[in-house]
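Notes from the 1:1 (GR / supervisor)

We went over the backlog. Supervisor wanted to see one worked example end to end before approving the batch request, so GR pasted a single chain during the call. The sequence is below; no edits were made to it. Supervisor asked that the structure be written out right there so they could see what the output format looks like.
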Amino acid sequence: MALKYVGYLEETMTEALSYNVYSRNCPARWFFERLAERWVLLIIGLLRDGKPLRFNELKRQVDGISQKVLSQKLKQLERDGLIVRQVYATVPVTVEYQLTQLGLSFADTIEKVSQWAEANVEQMFQAQQQYDAQTDAMTPRPSMRYLG
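Structure output shown during the call:
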């Protein structure tokens, strides 16, 4: 996989290294897709105030996420450098998650997107209803006539 990225870099290098998420083999596109995965934005959003949270706190606050998926997403985010996992030698072991500086810088963007979504969700619902009504009106209905 690393060779694919090296090839992309060789093809696209200019005076300054640049990435283009619209290009199929761009390494930045992989991160773009990772950040768009289900649950990722919610996890980062919960950690955006900088306060560390324990696993079960995150699980309770991200309504609907399974323990397995939360564990997978946290490992991915840690690998990507967006969160840090801190283990404390207590009985039972205490584990906390917190955003890194990189994660905090992205969390600002998530906050803006969250605010936009909350402010515009009703308008989007209205657009969906209008679209569905127009589509339903144009969809031919099957005949009830018996063709047997």
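Supervisor's comment: The radius of gyration is 22 Å.
Batch request approved.
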